[in-house]
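Input sequence (290 aa), recorded before submission:
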Amino acid sequence: MRKVRKAVIPAAGLGTRFLPATKAIAKEMLPIVDKPTIQFIVEEALASGIEDILIVTGKGKRPIEDHFDSNVELETNLREKEKTELLKLVEETTDVNLHFIRQSHPKGLGHAVLQAKAFVGNEPFVVMLGDDLMEDEIPLTQQLIDNYQTTGSSTLAVMTVPHEETSRYGIINPESEISKGLYNVSSFVEKPDPKDAPSDLAIIGRYLLKPEIFEILENQAPGAGGEIQLTDAINTLNNTQRVFAHEFKGKRYDVGDKLGFVKTNIEFGLKHPEIAGELKTYLKDLAKDL
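Predicted structure, token format:
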């Protein structure tokens, strides 16, 4: 069984939910307190043993490349002023084996993943979406890799969501629970109406896929929203080889919309060593006036 060494991070979306901020700033560079959201994704990949990461970008995403590149002038300035801790923060983003490719036309998540075909080759790989930050003792990506080492099959991360929100997600139709939290799946449905949703288990932005997915994506017809949907391709893959769903029990932070983004900043701020105390006091005082 081949080792899972590669990750693909789609980051070509227009970020329209965060306009006007994202008119000139890549959505993935919006900070959670003081760290861009995409850095959390890269850190999860590295903590899970991933060796090579491909970020699929688009127009206006150059700041992502710059963030993970060396900034000699800044580093020299911090070194001369003996700002050791800040220098360490800057340098830790440059020691990563990153690759970049442009998705010229945003045709959906499935199309973005297809751009990684040459990078992945004939290996299993993980897809990590930047709208979901995951927190657990064992990184979620590592959990998927551990499952793959046992089953040898593609595996998606899922989590229970409120039934009325199923139209926002890809939803699985679980056939059976083969072990605790690991489901055999009969079908995958992209953004079903709640009355048609086969379950409340939603795909949450982490996928471990075998390379056969690429041939399917090359022939995949547009689905919901007129885009090439990764969920549809996975459903087709499931017709020829088993695709499992792993239920995530950790903490998920949804930074894909304004409210989720603000909530995440507050929660991470309450854990940040520099501002936690003052923020907690501020929130208590604010609550008195509400």
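Checked by second reader. The radius of gyration is 20 Å.
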